Amino acid sequence: MGVSLKDVAQRAGVSVKTVSNVVNSYPHVKPETRERVQRAIDDLGYRPNLTARHLRKGRTGIIALAVPELGNPYFADLATAVIDAASQHDHIVLLDHTAGLREKEVLVSQGFRSHIIDGLILSPIRLETEDLLARAGGPPLVLLGEREYDAPYDHIAIDNVAAARTAVRHLIELGKRRIAFLGARHESLRQPAHLRLRGWREEIRASGGVPDESLVLATDGYDRRDGAAAMTRLLDRTDPPDAVFAYNDLVALGAMRVLTERGLRIPEDIAVVGFDDIEEGQYAAVSLTTMSPDKTAIARLAVDCLVERIASGASTAAFPRRILPGCTLTVRESTIGRGRPGTGA
Amino acid sequence: MGVSLKDVAQRAGVSVKTVSNVVNSYPHVKPETRERVQRAIDDLGYRPNLTARHLRKGRTGIIALAVPELGNPYFADLATAVIDAASQHDHIVLLDHTAGLREKEVLVSQGFRSHIIDGLILSPIRLETEDLLARAGGPPLVLLGEREYDAPYDHIAIDNVAAARTAVRHLIELGKRRIAFLGARHESLRQPAHLRLRGWREEIRASGGVPDESLVLATDGYDRRDGAAAMTRLLDRTDPPDAVFAYNDLVALGAMRVLTERGLRIPEDIAVVGFDDIEEGQYAAVSLTTMSPDKTAIARLAVDCLVERIASGASTAAFPRRILPGCTLTVRESTIGRGRPGTGA
DNA sequence: CTGAAAGCGCTTACAG
DNA sequence: CTGAAAGCGCTTACAG
Fold first, then answer.
1. Which of A169, A328, B74, B172 has the fewest CB atoms within 10 Å, i.e. the most exposed one?
2. Nearest to B52 among A55, A77, A285 (CB)
3. Are B332 and B253 contacting, i.e. CB atoms less than 8 angstroms apart?
4. By the CB < 8 Å criterion, does A158 face chain B?
5. Where is the signal peptide, in residue numbers (chains A, B) (predicted)?
6. Would you state the pLDDT for residue B317?
7. Tell me, what's the pLDDT at B112?
């Protein structure tokens, strides 16, 4: 601390410009000058002050990632992947969580940390299109997740309708007919789960069935406790389902805990499919069949998009992209029972 | 972007100093001046450039948190708590993961991001004392976790020996006599798990038993797969244990998966105790008894310590503190069976 | 209560 | 190939 370019320049007997050239490996520096400067740098233990560099260049090399909560392993995995992808581009990651609160999501999206971050990756739950449109020239933004917006920003998300149909089809092919949907939120149709719920309806119709809306269970959130509560309500009724498609793995795992407590067999009595493919599902007592989004691809695409937008210098995207990473079905014991290796390890 | 103090000053017809005073809510500003400036700020949509402020003040308000991996829910929870604690002090958090690699831990501890961060909270796995001593005047540092160092830095960690003894005593009180320890690392005695292993030995001796070192199972890491692999090795022997104390919950959950696959009953055949109290354990088919460190306290203490050290301006701590947050036993089905409510929810 | 000026540590045209 | 100087946008003694 305290050693500046000027100190190095003085010691090496050159101007700060020359030192700067060496530090930034500018090619046209006379070898002996470079060596002299390098020695001064080493002697003094000089390290460039990045803040100053940032101020000058107008970029910080920091991108922010805002997710609802790190406590959901899906988002922890995603954050890990984003950190790694960002480091490929020499960027570091400032992490924040919104708890899925619209107020916090708005705050983050408005870039209350502008000037510190070059760009933002946001996975919103309750944010509305109008909030995005009101965003006054903040840093470039890339959106993640199931919510859809009519706003000038890139959006990375799997095809939720198609993925949900795949999950439900799997259950139908196993002979299940009363398939519940766990995790529709107590809110408007534009909330998350909307698309997965639509997939549920479409696939049931496609198989010649009629969606039973009483099998759609609303929840407060998407945690284990929400899954457990919804499953309890479902089982307390007279006509239980023979399968459950959950909004995500946490909801599915909460539901499975209740099934186990009640002594019901998975999948014989009730089969379960989740969504996200968190590792916990592999090691559950009955391992969990789930839809596996390609998290690495999602993170990489998000960071690539963002870095590109940052380079372009525009706050909004004139031609916003909609990118669909892959999502595949991973079959485990919760739908086909023991018999094949369960952990997938 | 592009609106500076100067622009606001011009529009309001005052000097930049006055605008700065208003922005920083300096008390002695004539009300009508303040109002005029505020109007200019609003009209222009001015937002202070934090990078410039940082350069000037020499502080950024950013602290870094480096954990082995976010994929372990314990660290995800800890990160969440650190972010919240930091925001209490108006600091934001740069997150990094080390994968428990010494090289990466050294890099982080040497502050390769110095000048961007005001301080660092590091949870090391393989870092050595010499690495810390070689640290050349980086930003203030607070250490977390089971590793112990003889270095001038504050250290926040529960009393691992005492906590392990509590866990083992619980098993002994339930009548268990052959208690295995899962998760000693294939490395030196100074590695993590050392203290918990010592607690295991001490408590067995205290109960009048003799620690059976063949029941100490080494693992490569502390993940579910490590627990599953170790449990498999243990069961393939002729003399299985009647209880397992795992280094952490992930190892315990991996072990439980294997027990379930083999058709063994938990806790009747083999009881299991973990460490960390991650939510997953509450919702496992057999809910997991575990040691519950006070993560919120750990995060708060770490941030408080760090902020204090930052304020003091010293890179190292003349009188490093050793702080011991609480850690309590949480009893669930994996030791006492079904019969009481299991999820603890 | 407010202004003019220096300076935080860099990078970058502009000269030479 | 290298130097002198301006400027990124703030804050802070120093005056008045």
1. A328
2. A55
3. no
4. no
5. none
6. 87
7. 66
User: From the CB of residue B159, how many other CB atoms can be counted at a distance below 10 Å?
Assistant: 15
Q: Does B331 touch chain A (CB under 8 A)?
A: no
Which chain A residues are closer than 8 Å to B254 by Cβ? 283
Give dist(CA A89, CA A309) in Å, integer: 13
- Give the integer Cα–Cα distance in Å for A114 and A108: 10
Residue A130 token pair: 């109008």
Question: What integer pLDDT is reported at residue A111 of this predicted model?
Answer: 74
Length of chain B: 345
pLDDT at B54: 86
Model pLDDT for residues A247-267, shown as the tens digit of each residue = 999 999 999 999 999 999 999
- Residue A341 pLDDT level (bands cut at 50, 70, 90): very low
In this complex, the answer to whether residue B17 has its CB under 7 A from any atom of chain D, a nucleic strand, is yes
Counting residues of chain B whose pLDDT is more than 90, the rounded percentage is 66
Do B60 and B114 form a contact (C-beta atoms < 8 A)? no
In A, minimum Cα distance to B111 occurs at A47
In contact, B225 and B259? CB cutoff 8 Å: no
Average pLDDT of A89-109? 91
In the structure, what pLDDT confidence band is assigned to residue B191 with cuts at 50, 70 and 90?
Answer: low
B285:A95 CB<8 A: no
Query: Does A165 have pLDDT greater than 80?
Result: yes
pLDDT at A23: 86
Q: How many CB atoms lie within 10 A of CB B12?
A: 22
Residues of chain A neighbouring B50 (CB-CB closer than 8 A): 113-116
Which residue segments constitute the domains of chain A, with CATH numbers given? 5-48 (1.10.260.40), 59-158+295-314 (3.40.50.2300), 160-293+329-336 (3.40.50.2300)
Cβ neighbours of residue B263 closer than 8 Å, sequence gap 6 or more? none
- Nearest residue in A to B46, CA atom: A136
Own/partner long-range contacts of A80-85 (Cβ < 8 Å, ≥24 apart): A80/B69, A80/B70, A80/B71, A80/B97, A81/A295, A81/A296, A81/A298, A81/A299, A81/A300, A82/A121, A82/A299, A82/A302, A82/A303, A83/B95, A83/B96, A83/B97, A84/A299, A85/A299, A85/A300, A85/A302, A85/A303, A85/A304
CB A194 within 8 A of CB A149: no
- Among protein residues, the one whose C-alpha sits closest to the C1' atom of D2 is A18
